[in-house]
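Encode chain A's predicted structure.
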Amino acid sequence: MSSTRKSPDQQPQHESRSSDVVDERSLKRVAALFAAGVTVVTMRRAGGLHGLTLNAYLTVSWNPPLVLISIDNLSQSVDHIRDAGVFAVNFLSNRQEFLAERFAGRAPLVNTRFEGVPHRFGATGAPLLDNALGWLECRVEKTIEAGDHTLFLGRVVGLREGQRGSALAYFARAYRSVEP
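Encoded structure for chain A:
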């Protein structure tokens, strides 16, 4: 991929805002223009099972196999992952929007036994949601405080591909289906 610099007369006519005047609402509005896959991050701890819908996921490194998730500090999931030391990333299919809503807290809540949520347990003990496109089981390598979020760097210690199908994505504040 090559990069070419545009002349001043070819530059977009949108004015950029300085970082000292960027407000949270504007940042959220612009960030919603980025399409992202939808995951449910799950963990098991003494108090039961827990999960949350998350699209703030990325692969950091192939070797060693590292991924990163970002969670709002107001979420109880931050403490759950710290306590558990492990988590699983479940990549949702387009047929699992109902699970994305449940784990986001916008549908009937999921209790600590995951009643009504088909799943099994991975080698780390974290729940793996049935019919997901794939799963990554991770051990927390590093925790990073970053503004109003906590970043968890996880080493992938197990993985599995699920059923082939279309992915569930989130774009412009709505769920979308992404074909393979």
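Residues 24-31 form the longest helix (8 residues).
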